[in-house]
Design a protein that fits this description.
heterodimer; A: about 250 residues; mainly alpha; B: about 230 residues; alpha+beta; 6 helices; about 55% helix; elongated
């Protein structure tokens, strides 16, 4: 009889143990996340966490992998840079990634009672993922316009392409708005912020050296006056210098 | 819901008559308990037997769908293979990396050693290969799976190339070559799936297709399954 009791007890324990499934699930064994994965992951990260629950961060060894995967540029590059795939298909996927990124942006926006970002590093990592994505997205869009145009050299097509590049530059300028929130960042956050300016903005300028960067320069100059961080100031100065140097080269 | 929890619930449900009997037994501690206990044990025994047989049945069916059996296909019929040949059943795996639209192919290197000849051929097992939907129009998925078959054929030819270079007919050496080639083939198949990420990385898929095709062409001389070894002095 005792054996039977123990058997029953074991079954009950086993059942109860199995009720504790992982609260948050992410496809971490998957090499590349596609837009369907982003759908689920963004949903989970935005609405699956309680207000006082910690979201995955880079400094959490157990959960670091989640935010690393989330902001891994290879996820979109593996498709968007694959020249074996058709340009229309790649553009469609790029649009999907871009739309997902806009949702992704909301994940790490939380601030504390002192208006400081709770997840500044992660928020900036998402931002920088978006900057890199936009570079590919707008380029693909323009390439498709050129490919499907009757006359790629016509002024109408050129205007459309230039307009797209200006939109891209405007989107990059929004990143500089974060300098306005400088006080909301930790010291590490400020370093991450400058990394974004140094790395991604220079890529943009090198890709479109002939574009009109006056708006960006103006914004950078204003932020330079406002910033109190030497690191940020240095990054902004370099940016202004780079724009100026490209302007001189153009002349 | 957690998969394990579902399985446990099914088992609990399945054994619910047993637990009911057990409950009755625990409730009444009378002389009749002995009878009840015997009945309970008998009931448990039969239940376990049925469960074991059912598990074996589904296990075997999942391994090879003998209800819709098609014998292994040799490489000379490669061009005729379509998803209609993927007759396997899958009860346990619902998705591959969260993708429900998946397929897998089972191939092997089959060998037979005679007195002075060896037959080595690649086989594709239709009743062990699975596709989520037989009438799927995904050419890319079919191409990816069919290249697994080509890879097996490639290593089969490599084995034949190596065997035919032997000066003496040595069964142990031949067995060693085949064993070695089988290991290399498995490793290559894994690398193919990893690098192409099951054809998601399209440029890698195309690179593999070109590589495998050109290697197969290079080994056209070893297309025939049987090779005869003439001992050279």
């Amino acid at each position: 009889m005792k054996k039977i009791k123990y058997f029953l007890l074991a079954i009950i324990c086993l059942t109860l143990t199995n009720c504790n499934s992982d609260k948050h699930e992410f496809p971490l064994d998957k090499r590349y996340w596609d837009t369907n994965d982003y759908d689920n992951v963004i949903l989970e990260l935005r609405f699956g966490y309680e207000e006082d629950e910690n979201k995955p961060t880079f400094d959490n060894p157990e959960q670091r992998i989640i935010v690393q995967k989330l902001t891994d540029e290879q996820n979109f590059k593996i498709v968007l840079k694959d020249k074996e795939l058709g340009i229309k298909h790649r553009n469609k996927i790029a649009t999907e990634f871009f739309n997902h990124w806009k949702d992704m942006h909301q994940i790490y926006q939380a601030t504390d009672r002192k208006d400081k970002y709770l997840y500044d590093i992660e928020m900036l990592a998402v931002w920088q993922y978006g900057l890199s994505l936009q570079l590919e997205y707008f380029k693909l869009g323009n390439d498709e316009i050129i490919e499907s145009a009757d006359d790629p050299n016509s002024s109408r097509i050129k205007n459309t392409i230039n307009s797209n590049i200006q939109t891209l530059i405007s989107n990059y300028i929004i990143y500089l708005d974060e300098v306005n929130n400088e006080k909301a960042f930790s010291e590490k956050g400020k370093t991450k912020l400058t990394e974004g300016i140094n790395m991604h903005f220079s890529k943009l300028i090198k890709l479109y050296p002939g574009a009109n960067f006056s708006g960006m320069k103006n914004k950078a100059e204003l932020m330079l006056k406002k910033s109190e961080s030497n690191e940020v100031k240095s990054a902004l100065t370099k940016l202004i210098e780079l724009i100026d140097s490209k302007k001189k080269e153009e002349k | 819901m957690n998969d394990k929890l579902i399985i446990i619930l099914i088992i609990l449900l399945y054994f619910s008559p047993v637990f009911y009997q057990l409950y009755l037994l625990l409730k009444e501690r009378k002389e009749e308990n002995k009878k009840l206990l015997k009945r309970l044990l008998r009931f448990t025994k039969y239940s376990f037997l049925i469960l074991i047989f059912t598990s074996i049945f589904f296990g075997v069916l999942s391994h090879t769908n003998f209800l819709n059996y098609e014998k292994p296909i040799t490489f000379d019929k490669y061009d005729q293979i379509t998803f209609k040949n993927f007759r396997g059943l899958e009860f346990f795996k619902k998705s591959l990396y969260s993708n429900e639209r998946f397929a897998y192919v089972v191939t092997s290197i089959d060998s037979e050693i005679d007195d002075n000849s060896v037959t080595v051929q690649s086989l594709f097992y239709p009743s062990r290969s699975f596709v989520y939907k037989k009438n799927t129009n995904s050419k890319e998925l079919l191409t990816h799976e069919k290249y697994h078959i080509k890879i097996t054929e490639l290593f089969t030819r490599k084995a034949k190339e190596e065997i035919s270079s032997l000066k003496i007919f040595d069964k142990n050496k031949i067995k060693g070559i085949i064993r070695d080639v089988k290991t290399k083939e498995r490793a290559f198949q894994k690398k193919y799936d990893y690098n192409t990420f099951h054809s998601y990385v399209f440029s890698e898929q195309k690179r593999y297709e070109k590589e495998v095709d050109s290697l197969l062409t290079l080994l056209t001389a070893y297309k025939k399954p049987k090779i005869t070894i003439d001992e050279k002095n």
